[in-house]
Specification:
Layout (H helix, E strand, L loop, with lengths): L2 H7 L11 H13 L5 E3 H9 L5 H13 L3 E6 L2 E6 L1 H15 L8 E5 L10 E4 L2 E5 L10 E5 L8 H8 L2 H25 L6 H19 L16 H26 L1 E2 L2 E2 L5 H18 L1
Antiparallel strand pairs: 1-3, 2-3, 4-6, 4-7, 5-6, 8-9
Helix pairs in contact: 2-5, 2-8, 7-8, 7-9, 8-9, 9-10
Length: 291
């Protein structure tokens, strides 16, 4: 598959939306490297980023900044340099991976914190006077103090307006729509041709691009109860496209990783227990789309 054909599938000219190097490097490590021991040779990092239009100088500058920021740790062995995520960065991506690779729990009603005076955990918004609101999901951390749960009653048409006042849903929705527009042609191509003309290197590049752009929306999505969704909320369609495309790209992408990427001990494995579990969860989620 040529670069021009890939550009057509992504609905954007090459270089038009080159990802920021630091963010893309963290995406690469979280998806491909961390599940395989966590360490990557700098040469492989440079070549992988080049597929996204990120120059070697930008990669090296980004790596230096990530090291200074406590996100990456470097080790030099002979003439080669190897880098891995720090514990801080690992924890950040573990949190992100629960949204990306594990079927997100549906919100069942609402949580209301009364008279809270502490910093609010992720997912909560202040309503003033110490009162805070959050979707009732299993992954939402409850603040200390009195917290009550309940379901919406009365005029449900009022909930989207309230949610729009409390959460930045316009921005999240626009990011989902941009993702759908960019990857719709790719999704259709993967369904129609079963990857007969996509090699492993291209598959990995497409998968990393897919993750990078999906997470821009998904990690900002408050995942509210359905009654609070705006009209034509694009999150479910974006999720279906992400899961189906990721699964379709997985086999050639993972085979390429195993045959090309290395750490200080040699080539990385094509698959591990972590990657197998990730694919199993996504496959079970994909079945639910047609169930």
């Amino acid at each position: 598959m040529t670069g021009h054909q890939i550009d057509q599938l992504l609905q954007a000219p090459r270089g038009a939306t080159i990802p920021r190097a630091p963010a893309f490097i963290v995406t690469l490590y979280g998806d491909a490297i961390e599940p395989r021991g966590g360490t990557l040779w700098m040469g492989d990092l440079v070549s992988c980023c080049a597929e996204q239009g990120i120059s070697e100088s930008l990669v090296r500058t980004a790596v230096s900044r990530l090291v200074a920021a406590g996100k990456l740790l470097g080790e030099r062995i002979g003439r080669r340099s190897f880098y891995r995520l720090t514990e801080q960065a690992q924890e950040e991506f573990r949190s992100a991976s629960r949204v990306l690779y594990t079927p997100p729990p549906a919100a069942r009603g609402w949580l209301l914190a009364l008279k809270t005076r502490e910093a609010l955990p992720d997912g909560w918004v202040s309503m003033g006077s110490g009162v805070a609101l959050a979707p009732n999901r299993s992954d939402i951390v409850r603040p200390s103090g009195a917290v009550v749960s309940g379901e919406a009653i009365g005029e449900r048409k009022d909930w989207p307006d309230l949610a729009a006042d409390l959460w930045d849903l316009d921005v999240v929705g626009e990011r989902y729509r941009s993702f759908l527009e960019r990857y719709d042609a790719l999704g259709r191509h993967l369904r129609d041709t079963s990857l007969r003309d996509i090699d492993g290197k291209t598959a990995l590049g497409l998968r990393l691009s897919l993750i990078h752009h999906y997470r821009l929306a998904a990690l900002k999505d408050p995942r509210l109860p359905r009654e609070a969704w705006p009209d034509d909320w694009p999150a479910p369609d974006a999720r279906r496209l992400f899961v189906s495309a990721y699964l379709a790209l997985a086999a050639p992408a993972d085979a390429f990783i195993g045959g090309s990427f290395s750490d200080s001990h040699g080539l990385l494995p094509s698959a591990t227990e972590v990657t197998d579990l990730r694919l199993d969860r996504l496959a079970r989620e994909a079945v639910s789309f047609t169930g």
